[in-house]
Fold Transcription activator.
Amino acid sequence: MRGIKTVNEKKLVGYRVVCNELEEYGLEIPIAFERLESRKDEINQLVDSGQLIGAFKASETSIEDDGYWVCYEVYDFEDIPKEMVSLAVPAQKYAVLNYKGEASGIYKVYDDLHQWIEEQGYKRVPAKWSLEVYSKWSEHENDVELCDPVM
């Protein structure tokens, strides 16, 4: 399914993964997901314990925004667990594509989404936060809503 939707502000708590090489993210992100899942009971004001969210900016904007955030959404920031970070993602309009399959296939699906965005007359905004909303996450099977910011 493809479409356009506005997503309200999201308050996220989890881990920030920063790697020197792009290929390293494929190794480090799954580790961060598993680590976060094992500590989700420590997160206060959790919105949905079955929904992991990845956040990133597709273009380099600043050192503070570099990396990939592996998070859970919270209603409000309260007593962030040690070693975790918080991130507020402002409300944004997104082009959305649902993907089911292996984690390694997600990169290829973005090419299709970007082409669709252009065909629909929208413009990508890579300096804003992209979201990957997982209702199921594993190395081999994912059910994820890819949200690419547009205007």
About this structure: Strands lie at 2-7, 10-17, 52-57, 68-74, 85-89, 92-101, 129-136, 142-149.
